[in-house]
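Assess this today:

___
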Amino acid sequence: MPVNQWIDVHAHFFPPERQEVREARRVSMSEAGWILSEPPRWDPQTTLNYMDRTGIAMQMLSNIPKTLGALRSSNEYAASLVKEHPARFGLLTALPTDSPDDAIAEINRASHELHTDGYAVTCHYNGIYLSDARLDPVWKELDGRHAVVFAHPNAYAPAAMGRPAALVEVAFETARTVVDMLYAGTFRKFPNITFVLAHCGGALPALSGRPMILGHESWIANPNEVTAAEFRAHLRGIYLDTAATCPATLGPALAMTTPEHLVYGSDCGVPCTTEATMQANLDALLSYAGLSPGQIEDIGHNALRLFPCAAERIKNGR
């Protein structure tokens, strides 16, 4: 079954950088367990060529630097790419969730200046988890906008047992963050935010049965008295992308949510991903026996409901 004009919600980029900045990133990543022969790089034309070969209509671009200045500059660069290629790229504006005031300022700027399609956040950003109560004003702002928020773990955290965090640790960071958001009442308080989790939710789908069965026993702290039924409903409402997880995570994902809440993601544009690994993941998705061919095709287009402005740009070719 060929890919026909799919939407890729999980695609990364790097802004143009001086060689010394790229080399500093390589050194930092080497210290975190990565084995790299050269610094990572990204350019839009190479990505567009890949999209053309694969049948991808649009990539939703995200990049979340760890300093405010770099984050704002990165958002501006991505916005310029969308302006240049409006039917091929969408913008997920990165938010600095270590500072609620800065995050709200960037939300407002994204809406008025950058013309964003959605927002991108890191599960654990400069020491602050997304479940932190200090972020409630940020969620309130996004809830009022009925925003789509793409949540990605920190792939550049320190190595675990000598291996980069991008291999395994990212899956557990996603799971622990979302479970804590459930207990914090984030999904209850801000029901108008649509959350999309990277990597099919990491370990969350496979582990989701534990908090639903055990998470409301007397020996578990639950100060907000979030019920098991709420846990189940909130988890069912989350969207999951398919990046770097097929086919093994699709079964647990479908047990946690529905096929309509699966969206295609490639994890394109970062050093942990190659064209070969993207193709292997895509082939596994296309041949997955647990979904009908129509449901698999829908995964490539479900994101059109989430990003109506981007869908309109694709439709009009501009």
